[in-house]
Design goal:
Blueprint: E1 2-11, H1 43-62, E2 80-82, E3 85-87, H2 90-95, E4 104-106, E5 110-111, E6 120-129, E7 134-146, E8 152-160, H3 163-179, E9 194-202, E10 205-206, H4 209-220
Antiparallel strand pairs: 1-8, 1-9, 2-3, 4-8, 5-8, 6-7, 9-10
Length: 229
């Protein structure tokens, strides 16, 4: 089963995706950009947030906290040994695990329309001691955020899934995309609120709402093996 999901993400508030390096900006936490200095959203950032959302959705749909593995603890992360063989949960069959490659590929998300200048702002903040609930002394920082300006980001999710479980897994993935409302860092400060539009094609046929709903019902009614090798 060939999967192709077209994504369009519109940010409602400024956002930031940290690079882990200082770069050329005069800020403690710059946001990641492409070679033309245009902010982008790495596919890995979307994949990580979407995986977490799908984990929560699967547990809610199945009313079972153990419906998927419990990352990131190695002892409770797939593969789990059951009856002498390694087993993988629904989420790991979609997104991969330490010993199983992902069935899907997430492209980086780029601006849909060409923009010559990066609309970024510098915001200041202070580190908070979560135990004492007070500001940490001498821990002032600043970070670079992207002003949305109604710019639409576009990317793709592509891959292959088994025919017998593909509908339920794709329905879970689309449900996760529908539930995902934030991306990037600083979400507790109101950054990264977004609206995601997705259009999925399975074997080049457009997926409609009824197909997605049937997949979720099949998952809820036990029509898919939750754990398999």
């Amino acid at each position: 089963m060939l999967v192709d999901i077209d994504l369009r993400i519109t940010f409602l508030t400024p956002f930031t995706v940290g690079t882990g390096a200082m770069g050329e900006t005069q800020t403690n936490k710059p946001t990641i950009k492409d070679a033309l200095q245009r902010p982008i959203i790495p596919g890995s950032a979307l994949k990580g947030r979407l995986r977490h959302t799908c984990e929560r959705l699967a547990r809610s749909l199945l009313n079972d906290d153990d419906a998927v593995c419990h990352a990131p603890n190695p002892a409770t992360t797939c593969p789990l040994e059951t009856q002498g063989q390694d087993q993988y949960c629904l989420v790991c069959r979609l997104f991969g695990s330490p010993r199983r490659p992902s069935s899907l590929r997430f492209t980086d998300l780029h601006w849909l329309e060409p923009v010559t200048a990066a609309p970024t702002l510098i915001r200041s903040g202070v580190s908070i001691n979560r135990r004492r609930r007070v500001a940490e002394p001498q821990r002032l920082y600043d970070l670079e955020v992207v002003d949305p300006l109604d710019v639409v980001y576009r990317g793709h999710i592509t891959g292959h899934l088994n025919e017998d479980e593909g509908q339920a897994l794709i329905a879970l993935l689309l449900g996760g995309l529908h539930s995902l409302t934030t991306l990037g860092g600083g979400r507790g400060s109101g950054l990264g609120r977004c609206a995601i539009q997705s259009q999925a094609r399975i074997d080049r046929r457009l997926v409609d709402e009824a197909w997605r709903r049937d997949g979720l019902l099949r998952l809820q009614n036990g029509g898919v093996n939750l754990w398999r090798s």
